[in-house]
Predict the structure.
Amino acid sequence: MFNYIILLSCAVIVSSHLCLINPHQRGPLGGLNVPGAEDLDCNLTAPPCGGRPREQSILSLKADSNLTVVFQKNIGYFDPALPGNFTISVGADENSFTELVTFEDSETKDLYLHFIHDVVVPSTLGHHIFQVTYVTSPGVVYYQCADITVI
Ligand SMILES: *[C@@H]1O[C@H](CO)[C@@H](O)[C@H](O)[C@H]1NC(C)=O
Ligand SMILES: *[C@@H]1O[C@H](CO)[C@@H](O)[C@H](O)[C@H]1NC(C)=O
Ligand SMILES: *[C@@H]1O[C@H](CO)[C@@H](O)[C@H](O)[C@H]1NC(C)=O
């Protein structure tokens, strides 16, 4: 019980961050390459898109093509006994995400860049949202979304 309480208090103190670089996350990329920067751009915890509203998409992607999704574990807290995970999803709106890729967090250093190749762009045309989530060991979930257009 005592250990459990310690773990819970760690969860409050330890903060993690997630920056979505490609496709570019909604809003600026303040805090990129600065572990645990005070900046809030990579420290968004409101589902499903970190509280950031939909934007005009600046990236057009060919239907059914392969995309390399790039994101940064800006700062992380990793407990091997309770590994968190990263998930990439895509949807036509914020209520219809389909999971594309998911994998467990590991002992990677702060600022680690994940390059996830061969993420398949949807076949339906028009506005879509790529979402990346980072479930951390302490249970806090970080969210980033990017608006793109499938052509
Ligand atoms: C990240 O956000 C949380 C809650 O929104 C806040 O308590 C924390 O201080 C922020 N961390 C940094 C390093 O900005
Ligand atoms: C990711 O973590 C969440 C929360 O603990 C869990 O529900 C989900 O099954 C995990 N997914 C993977 C692939 O580990
Ligand atoms: C595109 O991604 C799919 C699924 O991830 C993979 O099977 C395929 O080999 C990739 N194609 C190219 C040209 O990289």
Remarks:
- Strands lie at 17-22, 59-61, 66-75, 85-91, 98-104, 112-120, 126-135, 141-150.
- The mean pLDDT is 88.
- The chain has one domain: 2-150.
- The helical segments are 2-13.
